[in-house]
Amino acid sequence: MYALASARVAPAPAVHLGSSKTKTRRAHAVAVIVNRDSPATAAAVPSEQNAPQSRRRLLLTAGTALLASTPLLPRAAYAKDDEQEVSYKAGPEGIQFADVVVGKGDQPFEGDLVRTNYVLTVGGKKVDYGKFFVFSVGAGEVIKGWDVILMGAGEGEQEMPPMRVGGKRVAKIPAALGYGAKGMGCRADNGECQIPPDSTLDFVIELVGIK
Q: Is the dihedral of CA 103, 106, 111, 113 positive or negative?
């Protein structure tokens, strides 16, 4: 997506130098083009080819300032964390969950190809997120906890119903249904891990569709 903005400098007042004629400096427009999908670039285009170099530098500076103040779209405008407090329920196998939005579409069954948006947070730090992530539910392509969250499980007070298309669920997945005692993304040189061993995984999952 491209955004086009123009920075204009108001005309400076006339300056009188002794008996010389009055000289008025004219403002020149600068067009700043920002490509949000690649490193941002700026181009300064003076409205007159004979503009003084000082004026060109001034306008380029104004354009650069405008560019710096324009926020780039983050990759994660996908599934967003909910700011409001949620009341978690005890689910099966140590999972805690809450339905932010209850979907009204179809529910997934083992072997279905599902399309999801998600955000994964560990220890208060966002470590992964994705949009329209597709996988076969119940086929071992993702951690077990994710399959359980989508298909539902349990009974009685710990029953967690299956999600439906259009639904959005937050869940805390215990390490046993996540990356266990090994963690994930651990470096051999210093042992630091993207997801430390025995970590509880905080998920926000949206079920977008079922193929």
A: negative
Q: Residue type for 10, please?
A: A
pLDDT-flagged residues of the chain (< 50): 1-52, 54-83
The per-residue pLDDT for 104 is: 96
Q: Are 61 and 121 in contact (CB under 8 A)?
A: no
pLDDT of residue 132: 95
Q: Are 171 and 161 in contact (CB under 8 A)?
A: no
CA end-to-end span of the chain: 29
Token digits of residue 180: 């266990």
Question: Which is nearest to 169 in space by CA: 196, 152, 183, 149?
Answer: 149
- What DSSP string runs through the chain? -EEEEEE--PPPPPB--TTSPPB-PPP--EEEEEETTSS-------SSTT--HHHHHHHHHHHHHHHHTSPPPPTT-SSPPP-S----EE-GGG-EEEEEE---SPPP-TT-EEEEEEEEEETTEEEEEEEEEEEETTTTSS-HHHHHHHH-B--GGG-BPPP-TT-EEEEEE-GGGTTTTT-EEE-TTT--EEE-TTPPEEEEEEEEEE-
